[in-house]
Amino acid sequence: MLFQEVERIREESLGVTFSCPTCGNRISMVTNPGETQLVHALGVKLGGRTDAPQPLDLTRETLRSSGSTAGAGECPFSDVVAGLQEPRKDSEPAGVEWTPEARARLERVPDTVRPLARMMIEQMALQKGCRHVDETLMDEAKEKFME
Amino acid sequence: MSDLRTLLDKLTFHDDAGVQKQLVDQLLKVKTRLARVRRKILVLSGKGGVGKSAVTTQLALALARMGKRVGILDADLNGPCVPRMLGLGDQRLTFTLDGAQPPSGPLGIRVASMAFLLDRGEPIRWKGPMDLTPVWLGMMEASVIREFLSDIAWGELDVLLFDLPPGAAADKPPTIANLIPELEGAVVVSIPSEVALEVVKKSVVYARDLGIRILGLVENMSGTRCPHCGDTVHPPGNGAARLAEELGIPLCARIPLDPDLARSLDRGIPLPEEHAVSQLFMGFARKL
Question: Is B83:B170 a contact under the CB 8 Å cutoff?
């Protein structure tokens, strides 16, 4: 499988896409916050470094400044992937609207797989030509993915 | 099963994400940086509170008095105290194209420490939602030590001492031993207490398992020096000597609990060379 791209799906979650060199099929892996942070702790950039590393950059970047509160407004993973765009906000998915009921059901999906579930449901909606996710689509997705 | 094996044989690894290359580059950077350091020595102990940092600083001073160019890497990330002991408590690292420049203390001793990145009295706080996860913390601390090894611009040094954190240290010695090319060995610090010696013995055995050569044992707080007559009174028993003999390592020094030394470390002002404790460390340094 060949590495294709990395997308920051939301804060602390990355989608890493690989493709088969023979058939072209693509597989995406979604990291949960723990996995993302473990990659960060290695001091590497997915996709390779394009800039020269600065002295102690991992240490300085990951140290929380005095007086700040835990995690507030500080994404420690901004440097994991070079040149990565800002993550999508929940309120502005990739052209797909979520009804409040569907969004509430998505929130009940465990944290570790929620980004993947969200991505798959949005892809399913787009394939059906839908621009919104409602409970009916959620039921269809559940039936399809739980087969 | 055989199908799976066939499939496995067909799989090829592509480092398209560049992770493996970056990890190799990190290690090469450490090797290149430490190539300019002639001797690399760990100071460790299985027990906390036995005076590893005190021994490290006094050994560094003794080596510097012998004309050596000395550096100390304070690898105790969570409780760094080498800077204060050498009067460098208010110093910071400065960053240049060549790397992070370590402040110079007495006799030109160069020091790198996490204390130089923290406000005085502030503990380390890491960003992120998993900042208290043991696995992540272990990886992060290993990476921080690796960065200190690769990014501190020591220049040419005759001796670099690594002041390790306390504990039987299941993680730091292997991390450091794996990272440091041509590590000469370790000085082990204990106190006369049988309880401490038992733990120290475990750390010696563990270090040897990792292939770390033990250069010698130092018995710190080895009795009390009388402020009136100057004589040193040792506690009963001779545990450190017995342990050294049992493990086949030299007992390099017995350092008394001296009020002058305690004041010197608290104030960050070195004892004069002619002081009895300084002379003990000079004798220790000559044995290394």
Answer: no
**Cβ <8 Å between B128 and A71:** yes
Q: Is B99 on the interface with A (CB under 8 A)?
A: yes
ipTM over 0.95: no
Q: Is B28 on the interface with A (CB under 8 A)?
A: no
Query: Which candidate, B120, B163, B126, places its Cα nearest to that of B145?
Result: B163
Residue B157: both structure tokens together: 């040094």
Count contacts between A and B (CB, < 8 Å): 111
Q: What is the pLDDT of residues A1-53, one digit of tens each?
A: 777 777 777 666 778 787 787 887 888 888 777 777 788 888 887 767 777 77
What is the spatial distance between Cα A98 and Cα A141, in angstroms, rounded to a whole number?
Answer: 14
Question: Do B95 and A54 lie within an 8 Å CB cutoff?
Answer: yes
Task: Write down the architecture of domain A88-147 according to CATH.
Answer: Orthogonal Bundle (1.10)
Domains, chain B, ranges and CATH? 14-287 (3.40.50.300)
Mutate to test the interface with B, among A44, A50, A68, A84 (most CBs of B within 10 A): A44
Supply φ then ψ for residue B181, to 5 degrees: -75, 140
Collect all residues of chain B within an 8 Å Cβ-Cβ radius of residue A37.
128-130, 133, 136
Single-letter amino acid code for the residue at B14 = H
State pLDDT tens for residues B81-112: 999 999 999 999 999 888 999 999 999 999 99
Predicted confidence at residue A72, as pLDDT, reads: 41
B49 vs A48: CA distance, rounded Å: 43
- Indicate the SS3 state at residue B73: strand
